[in-house]
Target: Sigma-54 interaction domain-containing protein
Amino acid sequence: MDNHLTLLAGTPETRATLHQQLDEIFGEFIKIDSYSVDESLPDLIEKDLIIFSSHLIEQEAAHVIGERCTSITARRTINYQHIDRLFELRDNTTVLCVNDTPEMTIETIDTLEKIGMNHLNYKPYNGRSSSEEIDTAITPGEVPFIPKRIGKVVDIGVRLIDITTLIEILDHFQLKRKLGGIISSRYTSKIIELSKKISEMNQQTQTLNEHLKQVVDGVNDGIMAIDVVGKVTVFNPFMEEYTGLSASHAIGKTLPQLFKQHDLLQFLSQPQEEGRYFTINTYNVMVYRFDWEGSDSVLLIFKNTDETITMERAARKQLTKTGYIAKYHFQDIIGESEALEKTKEIAKKLARSELPVLIQGESGTGKELFASAIHNHSGQRLDPFLAVNCSALPEELLESELFGYEEGSFTGAKRGGKKGIFEQADGGTIFLDEIGDISLKLQARLLRVIQEMEIRKIGGNKNIPIQVRVIAATNKDLLRLIEEGKFREDLYHRLKVLFLQIPSLRKRKADVPRLVHQFLIENGCPDHKISPSLMNTLKDYEWYGNIRELKNTISYLITVGEGTVITERDLPNDGFFQSNLSYEADAQLSMLDQQKFIHVLAIILELNESYVSASRSKISERSQQSDFPLSVQQIRKTIKDLEEHEYVKVKRGRGGTEITEQGRSFLKY
Ligand SMILES: Nc1ncnc2c1ncn2[C@@H]1O[C@H](COP(=O)(O)OP(=O)(O)OP(=O)(O)O)[C@@H](O)[C@H]1O
Model:
């Protein structure tokens, strides 16, 4: 090939890009060599057409150019292939324009403005200082010159040689007539490639827009967007339903053209709070307003509250099916006394957190009611609530109930194993009632579960992560149990992160009339009246068995009273009521011991009343026939305990055992 040219550029990148450009256009007709000043130059180029990539290079490489050379300094223009990157920047963004010299920077800005890239504010970078606020820089392939602090860099690629220089090259080789047409179509095909790329991008954006529209239309809420000049740009089908307006009518309109409700308009344009409740036509909606990050648009969401309530109901129904539901809410906790109101107020605050709560209060004060209400007031209200009475089950059974077991882990284990209460309550709340009654062994296990938030089933070898809020309750003095070595101090502190003390009914006697009224209703006798003097007696009473005792008393009164007015005459005798002493004594008894007491006492009473000697063997025989069979040792121990409590008298010889008045009262209670 006779035609030859040498390209001299600054950086290796510029050399490579321009060499490739010249090669793509002239490759078959002109042989091309190229050098970069930053790498190495030949000693001397004797005779050739020299193309300098810029004036700067013309000066820097002047010493290698022989006298018989002809030279052209290339005019350069933006690389159209990468120009689309500038469209990714938002209108009016101020950008730092960076090139290798201040002159080249000015030239780049000039070209960009001439080709119509006017949506940006270009600030030339002079290599020394630049405004600190500018965070975006654009450069034609000169990334190393960009100051370090700049966050976003848009490289539009090395500038290419422009068409006039290309024509000059053709001229030099006298190829213009022969190749002018081919060359200019090759050059313009590059620009067509760019248009193709932009139209593909357009199509992609359109598809994305359609997908987004489908998503917005498919959402269960009304969605509306407003652009920077206050015109509606999005109006989905739910908005159409709530407002009765069509999307085609709404789009392009301003808010006052669509809504007449003054308070709604005010909220939509300048909300004082996060969300607000409105009735639009017949729809009850909660409206939320969000400023759209990264744009000046505003997003408005209209949530149908009736729908939300229906959905909550459906979710609760599902939970009810599983039986893991908290039945009580704060409004079910009857009473307006100051002590109760304060307790409810604290409990509502505790509900907001997910930390463990220890509830302390005498028996029958409503600890379970409060635990249930706390769950229902918390963020987990749609998740399970499981309650377990720790004193009602023997240790092994309680352990397997709480933690579950793997198949075959003990004799009698169900096939397939069993999920424990902790696992079933995952995501929700577990209520551990009578926590003071659990054995030290179970306390250790419970402590680990609460600390690690994972459980291991009995006979299992893997840990299962769980997320459960623990609410524990006790009527015992746990600190005394700690002193006596019966309760772990570390577990106590883990459970008592938050604390709620439920006042006894003695401390809120003002609540008695309302509670009485409530229990009349619950017993199906809303029209029954309590005589004023009986009400005074009930109000004066100390209620050591608290609300449970009051509830039982009302059931008794309704049963024995005649007519619809209940008077003092209908009151049971003193033995019916729980005494302070018996409360103190019984508080020491575990639920299991109480059950044993009741079981054995009932057998003794029955034997006494049928004049059969209540010997240990007779009691044992009757016990074996019951649903709660006790071993001979258990019966011996229970009779001894009953004697200690003075509930029975054990006669020597063949006299057998006899129930005392105190035993009868205990049994009645
Ligand atoms: N404020 C109240 N309003 C209405 N009913 C109540 C109230 N407080 C308690 N009750 C009722 O009294 C009974 C005892 O309540 P609960 O079982 O919650 O007490 P507790 O403190 O957990 O008792 P225990 O320590 O014996 O387990 C329940 O039937 C409950 O519905």
